[in-house]
Design a protein that fits this description.
about 10% strand; disordered N terminus
Length: about 130
């Protein structure tokens, strides 16, 4: 559940509204996409690869929590959330447990002055927990 911040609600006043009352957005701008693969890449890159990987490392380093235990707990938590919210099919479509996932090659893109996004496959820790 998302909390609404009252002082920020006024900013929406000039935006065109959809039937749901939320602002209309153009696909593939910022965090909005009409493609499942783009959503998958965004979630996997930002949440799992960059943010939770750092948390996993710090918990291991400072508290001795083994990284496989951390990732199992995250996997189980995602599964419980999907079941409780009726989002199992949506999670299946995202495919967060694929053997490999694509991640953006940020450094390579900078070094090569690439005009388009560059990607490379990485091993997906969630693949270890597939049923």
């Amino acid at each position: 559940m998302c909390a609404r911040v009252p002082e920020r609600q006024g900013r929406r006043a000039g935006l065109p509204q959809s039937e749901s009352g939320l602002p209309r957005r153009s696909p593939d701008r910022y965090y909005w996409s009409d493609r499942v693969d783009a959503l998958r890449e965004l979630v996997m890159d930002t949440l799992f690869i960059y943010n939770l990987t750092e948390v996993s490392h710090l918990l291991n380093l400072h508290y001795g929590l083994p990284e496989p235990v951390f990732w199992r707990k995250i996997h189980d938590c995602l599964g419980r959330y999907a079941r409780r919210q009726g989002l199992e099919e949506r999670h299946r479509q995202i495919g967060h447990a694929a053997r490999e996932i694509l991640t953006e090659s940020l450094m390579r893109g900078k070094l090569l002055d690439a005009r388009e996004e560059l990607h490379h496959p990485v091993r997906n820790v969630f693949a270890d927990f597939r049923a």
